[in-house]
């Protein structure tokens, strides 16, 4: 069985900060066992207060990030790459302080930093060099880093599971794994259950969402086959519902380009998602 929960993008605009502390109790109220703190600015993270609420709720904490232009590990500018390492170390410190053991997301390149060209060997080397330093820092703190392949319109460095596995080989650190997101898989993978099987024990984390970024069940992801593949590889790790909440769709649209409301409220959407995921789990795992 997977450990299911929610990603904080559902309530925030991609950066968890003090004003969103209430979301931790809300994730628990909505039946989550895991919470993924989406962090783009680690310096604004309310570590002590969040750690206290994690202890109170008993939620399993995961962190994730989307590195951006100012901290892009594949930038030709050494200062920008140094910022990527600094941001990732900050996120690892937060993960540790929360009692977590996993950080994930677009942590190998700047999200949205497309060059208009094919990825280069030099870009992969720059990313791997940053990641080695970050992975060693994480290993000293018993933290695993999972890299999330994302759609071609967001990043040109890692789009598919196969490329994530090659990247892990290149970095050469044992505390690296893969984070798969069904929305991106639907665009980039030739075979969704096949991508899960390809990762095998390197799969460390999942973002569960339907093909259109609606709740599971509102698009055409082959959920039963996906869960059968997860069962086959023995994945029982954390998996969170990640999309953008209908409550503040006007504010998030410029960042997410998601204009469709998949439920009246974020809470309704979460309930829909959890009901569906629990039903699929019961069919496949029982
Ligand atoms: C983050 O988990 C994700 O899926 C991205 O599309 C956002 O940058
Ligand atoms: Mn994701």
Number of domains: 1
Between the first and last Cα atoms, what is the distance in angstroms? Answer: 9 Å
Strand order of the largest sheet: 1-2-3-4-5-6-7-8
Question: What would CATH call the class?
Answer: Alpha Beta
Brief account:
43% of the residues lie in helices and 15% in strands. With 286 residues, the chain is an alpha/beta fold.
Plain-language structure description:
It is a single chain. This protein has 286 residues and is an alpha/beta fold. It has one domain: TIM Barrel (Alpha-Beta Barrel). The protein is built from 10 helices and 8 strands. An 8-stranded parallel beta barrel has the order 1-2-3-4-5-6-7-8, surrounded by 6 helices. Helix 2 (47-57) links the parallel strand 2 and strand 3 (60-66). Helix 7 (192-199) runs parallel beside helix 8 (223-232). The model has no long low-confidence stretch (mean pLDDT 97).
């Amino acid at each position: 069985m997977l450990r299911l929960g929610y990603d904080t993008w559902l309530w925030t605009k991609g950066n968890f900060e003090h004003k969103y502390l209430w979301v931790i109790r809300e994730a628990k109220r909505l039946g989550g066992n895991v919470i993924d703190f989406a962090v783009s600015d680690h310096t604004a993270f309310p570590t002590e207060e969040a750690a206290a609420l994690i202890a109170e709720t008993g939620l399993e904490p995961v962190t994730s990030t989307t590195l951006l232009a100012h901290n892009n590990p594949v930038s030709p500018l050494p200062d920008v790459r140094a910022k990527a390492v600094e941001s990732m170390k900050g996120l690892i410190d937060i993960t540790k302080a929360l009692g977590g053991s996993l950080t994930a997301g677009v942590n190998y390149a700047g999200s949205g930093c497309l060059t208009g060209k094919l990825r280069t060997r030099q870009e992969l080397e720059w990313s791997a060099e940053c990641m080695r330093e970050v992975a060693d820092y994480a290993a000293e703190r018993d933290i695993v880093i999972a890299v999330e392949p994302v759609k071609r319109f967001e990043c040109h460095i890692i789009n598919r599971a196969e490329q994530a596995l090659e990247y892990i080989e290149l970095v050469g650190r044992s505390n690296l794994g893969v984070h798969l997101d069904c929305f991106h898989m639907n665009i980039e993978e030739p075979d969704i259950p096949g991508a899960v099987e390809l990762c095998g024990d390197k799969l460390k984390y999942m973002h569960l969402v339907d093909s259109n970024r609606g709740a599971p069940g509102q698009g055409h992801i082959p959920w039963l086959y996906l869960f059968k593949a997860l069962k086959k590889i023995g994945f029982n790790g954390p998996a969170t519902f990640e999309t953008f909440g209908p409550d503040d769709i006007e504010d998030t649209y410029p960042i997410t380009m998601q204009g469709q409301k998949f439920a009246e409220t974020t809470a309704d959407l979460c309930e829909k998602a959890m009901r569906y995921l629990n039903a699929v789990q019961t069919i496949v795992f029982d």
